[in-house]
Amino acid sequence: MKEDTVHPIDDDLIVRLQAAIDGLPVPAAPTPVLVVRPGRDFAPLRIAAAIGLSAMTLVAALVLGAAIGERRAALSSIPPSPARTADRYGIIVASGGPVVRREDDATQIARLYDEPIHRGGSELGVLHGVSPDGRRVAYWIWGASPPGLGSLTLTKLALFDANSGTTRELLSLPDAAGSGVVWSTDGSGLLVGVGWNSGAASANGPNLARLRTIDLATGKADDVGPAIDSGASGNATLRPLLWDRAADRIVALAAAGNANYATSIVVIDHGNAQSYVLDGHFLNYSIGISSDGKTLAGARTRDFALVAWPVADYAARTEIVPKPGERILSLWWRPRSDQLYFAHDNGLTADPAQWSRLEVWRPGVDSPRVVDPSPSVMGILFRFDGSAYFASYATAFNSLELVETDSGRHLGTFSERIVGTLLLPPR
Amino acid sequence: MHYQVNVIQRQLRAADAEATWTRRYAELRPRLVRALAATVGTYAGVEDAVQEAFLAAIARDDREIANLGGWLYTVALRHMRRTRRREVILQALRFRRPDVAPEIDQAIARIDLLAMLGQLPQRERELLIAKHYFGSTQDEIAAGFRMKRGTVSATLSRAITKLRALEGPE
After folding, report:
1. What is the rounded distance in angstroms from the CA atom of residue A425 to the CA atom of residue A88?
2. A49–chain B nearest CA distance, Å
3. Nearest CA to A184 among A142, A206, A212, A162?
4. Chain B contact probe: residue of A45, A173, A349, A378 with most B CBs at under 10 A
C-alpha cells in the first residue's frame, strides 16, 4: 500500500526531530562486569541492589563456603596445579577494545584493536581463542559488514603473539562474516566459521555458512565440510568447537533458522562429514567441548537441563535435570581437565532470580559436587590453564574475585571487565 | 522482571560466534532508549521496557520481524503502558511512592523540539516516532498499535500539523 508522503517543509521538521532525539543522552547499559568468554553464558546483570540477598544468606554462604571449599581437593580428576607464575598470567580487558596486561600490573602491554565507532555506549564482545599453551590469541575484529549482513560484523581475523608482543592479520573477509575461532589441539592452526548472504535471503544476516581451516605455518586457508544453507529466510551459523589435527577430526555446531539455538552437531572425521540433530532447544552459546575433545555439553532449555554426551554419540548422553524451580543455563569446561562447572539459578520461581550454587561434574565419571554454595556466584572465567577462575558475584557487582580452583583460595580482586586470559613472557 | 532481564542479558552478553543479538543490542538499544524517553518524557522505566522488548524479540522467529527497531519500540511502549497503569493503581492505594523524575530527564526538557513534542498527546508522539524515527510503515504501525490504517494516517498528519504549529512561523 502506498505510504503517505510528508510535505517538504515537514521533511526538515522530521530531520530536526530525528536529530533532537539523537541528541539525547543514553545512560550506560546494564553492562556485565564479566563476559565469561565468547560463546559462553555469563549470567546476570542488574545492579547488585536489585538482587535482593539477605544478610542471613550471605553469612551462611560464607561459612559453608569455607567448609565446602576444603573438599575441592578431594576431586580425583583435578589436574596438577601449575607453578605459581602470577607475574606471567595475563588478562584481556575490554576497555574501548581489548587490552592485554598482566594480572598484577595495570600497565597496558598491547591493544588488540579499537572498539569500532557505533551508535551507543555499550562495548561489543571480544570473540577470540587462546592457543593451548596460552601464548597466542586469535581474535576477530569488528568491521563494516558486507552487503546483507547488517551494519557491523566480524570481518578480520588477527593473531597476537605474547612472546613477541606483535599482532598480524590472518584473514580478511570482504564478502562474509566470521563466527567463532578455535585452535587446533596442537596449536598449529585455527578453525573458524564464516557466513555470508546469498542475496536471495533475508538481508539481516548470513543464510549460508561453512567452516574454514587456517594453517599458521603456511597461512593457507581451506574450506572444510559442507556449507549449510538456511534457505530463503533465517540465519545460518556454523560455530567451530574442535580441530584435532592428529585424529583428523573437526566438530562444530550448526544453527539454522533461529541463530540462538543449535540445531545439530557436525562431526568431520578424515574429511567425511556427518551430523546429528539436537532436540530440546540447546542454547547456541552454551555448547562447549571438553579439553580432550571427547565430550560435548550444553544447556537444554526445554527442561533447563545440563546435558553431556560423547562427541559422536548423542544417544549416550547423560543429563542433570534440575530440581523444580531451578534452571541450569551456565556451564564452563575447566581447561586441561574433564571437569564441567555449572551454576544453578532459581529464576523460574523467584523474582529476582538468585544463583544458588556452583557445582563441578565429570560427565560419565561421577556425580556433581558443590564447590561454592554462595547464592550469588553469577559467572566464572577460567584462566587458560584452569588453575584459577575469575568469579562474578551478585554481591559485588563491579568487581571480580580471582579464585584458585583447587583450593578455593581468593587470590585477588579485579575491577575491570575481563574477557580472556593468556600467558605472558617473564618480565 | 529481573528473571526476564537476566535471560535477556545471558543471551545478549553471550557474544557467541555470530554475535547477532549482541550486535543488534549494541546498535538498537541507544536508539530505543532515546526514542522512548522522548516519547514518554522521562527515562524512568525505559531501560526495563527495552529489556522486555529484546526478550520478546529473542523469543520470536527473526523472520517474522521486518523492522526490528520499530517492532522493539512498539513492544517496549506496550510494556511501559502496562507498567504505568500498575504503578498508578499502586500509588492510588498508597502502596508505592510516586517516582522522582531522574535528573537526566532535564535533557529532554532542554531540547526545544522535544519539549514541544511533549505537548502532543501520547499516541501522536508514539506514532510520529515510530514512523519518522524508526521508519515503520503505516501498515506496521497499524498492526503494532492495533489501529486502523486510516486512523494511523490521520493521527500522523494531525501530529505533524500540531508540531509545526507549536514551532510557530519560520
Report:
1. 6
2. 12
3. A212
4. A45
Produce one character per residue of B101-136: b if its CB has 16 or more CB atoms within 10 Å, e if not.
Answer: eeebbebbeebebbebbbebeeebbbbbbbbbbbeb
Q: Which chain A residues are within 8 Å of B68, Cβ to Cβ? A: 204
Residues A311 and A279: their CA atoms lie apart, in Å, by 15
Q: How many CA atoms lie within 13 A of B124 on its CB side?
A: 16
How far is residue B58's CA from residue A124's CA, in Å, rounded to a whole number?
A: 18
Residue type, B101: A
Task: Find out whether A29 and A331 touch, Cβ atoms under 8 Å.
Answer: no
Tell me if A157 sits within 8 A of A171, measured CB to CB.
yes
Q: Are A155 and A143 within 8 A, CB to CB?
A: yes
**How distant is the Cα of A426 from the closest Cα of chain B, in angstroms?**
31
pLDDT tens, residue order, chain A (427 aa): 445 555 545 677 888 888 888 888 877 765 432 222 233 222 233 222 222 222 222 223 333 333 333 233 333 344 444 444 567 999 999 888 899 999 999 999 999 998 776 544 456 678 899 999 999 999 999 888 787 777 678 899 999 999 999 999 999 999 899 989 999 999 999 999 999 888 765 556 788 899 999 999 999 999 999 999 887 667 888 999 999 999 999 999 998 877 778 899 999 999 999 999 998 889 888 899 999 999 999 999 888 899 999 999 999 999 999 888 788 888 999 999 999 999 887 766 665 566 668 999 999 899 999 998 876 777 899 999 999 999 887 776 678 899 999 998 999 999 888 889 999 998 8
Task: Identify the H or E element spanning A213.
Answer: strand A208-215
Residue of A nearest to B152 (CA): A4
User: What is d(CA A422, CA A135) in angstroms, rounded to the nearest whole number?
Assistant: 6
Q: Is A235 on the interface with B (CB under 8 A)?
A: yes
Q: How many CB pairs under 8 A join A and B?
A: 212
Residue showing cell 538482587: A51
* CA distance, residue B137 to nearest chain A CA (Å): 7
Question: Are the Cβ atoms of A41 and B14 closer than 8 angstroms?
Answer: yes
State the cell numbers at A211. 567452516
Backbone angles phi, psi at A316, to 5 degrees: -90, 25
ipTM of the modeled complex:
0.83
Chain B residue with minimal CA distance to A419? B15
Give the whole-angstrom CA distance, residue A360 versus residue A369: 5
Is the overall model pTM greater than 0.80, yes or no?
A: no
**Residue B18, C-beta contacts closer than 8 angstroms, at least 6 positions apart:** A177, A179, A195, A205, A206, A235, A237, A239, A259
CB distance A297 to A333 below 8 Å: yes
Residues from chain B contacting residue A30 (CB–CB below 8 Å):
5, 9, 47, 51
**Nearest neighbour of A45 by CB, restricted to B6, B61, B167:** B6
